[in-house]
From TrEMBL:
Pfam families referenced in this protein's UniProt entry, alphabetically: DUF5926, SEC-C
Lineage: superkingdom: Bacteria
Gene3D superfamilies per record: 3.10.450.50
Protein name: DUF5926 domain-containing protein
Taxonomic placement: Bacteria, Bacillati, Actinomycetota, Actinomycetes, Pseudonocardiales
Transmembrane segments: none
InterPro entries (UniProt xref): DUF5926, SEC_C_motif
Residues of the DUF5926 domain: 46-310
Location of the region described as Disordered in the Swiss-Prot/TrEMBL record: 1-27
């Protein structure tokens, strides 16, 4: 089976049999209020198969201001961004630099195909132009899986503001006001950098600090491993942390911990690395030792701790 055929086989078509059910895209909305408005095919896990998947999900869902070189197979210089001015899908700067936006104005069912379409548009667009939305007419039949180096992870840079929107420029009053508005809603965010840790980000919401960690394991196995750690007292990241729950994003589970706001973000990198080792051991042990009754009860408790990203 060819790569594109496999990708299509992994897609999940939403039907209108029960429009009140949660939308398969993972938005948390009812199907009729989300993708039920059209006939688009929903790809529940649009970035599956890419080493960049956890950071792609983070840039799409909760990184406020971030950029990353896109690891394209053809080596073309393209910058992926969390969000562009006006939530545009793509922008070509006057110098020809291409920027693609993750947080865009669309309810498409296949974000991977949208990004490939935005890139195709940008590569033939005039400098100084932008693409507000990727519609069906912009799709090329390719997806990110066809364009990226599959084993190369994304390396996002998290910024404290949106100054990179207008690099080296003195913004006019309108642009300055736009930057001020955008900067005013940024929540301080940092990546946790440590061996075995990828897709984990610390964020200060103003009232609480959290660690959000995008995990790529199958949800059934991941929840079982988390339950085992919970029963063993190893679910926290360390002193000053509390497991808060999890949310789903683009086919992946994102565990969340409340952490001490007084501690610097970098102080959670080491505990996260230690947790990663415990989690790997718990996952490996599931093959030979099914969950005990106590661990099953712990899993039920954890399953009830579903949180909404704000």
């Amino acid at each position: 089976m060819g790569k594109k055929t496999r990708n299509r086989a992994n897609r999940s078509e939403a039907t209108a049999d029960n429009p009140r059910r949660p939308c398969p895209c993972g938005s948390g909305k009812r199907y009729k209020a989300c993708h039920g408005a059209g006939d688009d095919v929903i790809v529940v896990r649009p970035f599956e198969g890419l080493a960049a998947e956890p950071d792609l999900v983070a840039m799409r869902e909760f990184l406020p201001s971030a950029t990353a070189p896109l690891p394209l197979r053809d080596g073309g210089p393209v910058t992926l961004t969390s969000v562009l001015p006006g939530a545009s899908a793509a922008l070509v700067r006057d110098n020809g630099e291409i920027l693609l936006g993750m947080q865009v104005q669309t309810r498409s069912g296949d974000l991977s195909a949208d990004l490939a379409g935005a890139l195709a548009w940008a590569r033939s667009a005039e400098p100084g132009s932008s693409l507000p939305v990727v519609g069906p007419d912009r799709r090329t039949g390719e997806r990110l899986q066809d364009l990226l180096e599959p084993e190369t992870p994304l390396e996002p840079t998290v910024h404290a503001d949106f100054a990179w929107w207008l690099p080296g420029e003195s913004p006019d009053p309108e642009a300055a006001a736009m930057l001020e508005r955008a900067n005013s809603v940024i929540m301080p965010t940092e990546a946790l950098t440590a061996p075995g840790v990828r897709g984990a980000y610390w964020v200060d919401t103003g009232s609480k600090a959290h660690v959000r960690w995008v995990r790529t394991e199958d949800e059934t196995w991941l929840m079982a491993a988390l339950a085992r750690l919970s029963d063993q007292g190893g679910l926290e990241l360390g002193e000053g942390s509390r497991y808060a729950g999890s949310f789903r994003a683009h086919g992946l589970l994102v565990p969340v911990w409340d952490v001490d706001r007084e501690m610097h973000s970098s102080e959670w990198a080491g505990p996260a690395a230690e947790f990663a080792v415990r989690l790997d051991e718990a996952l490996a042990g599931l093959a030979d030792a099914p969950l005990t009754d106590a661990e099953h009860r712990a899993r039920e408790v954890l399953s009830g701790k579903q949180i909404t990203l704000r």
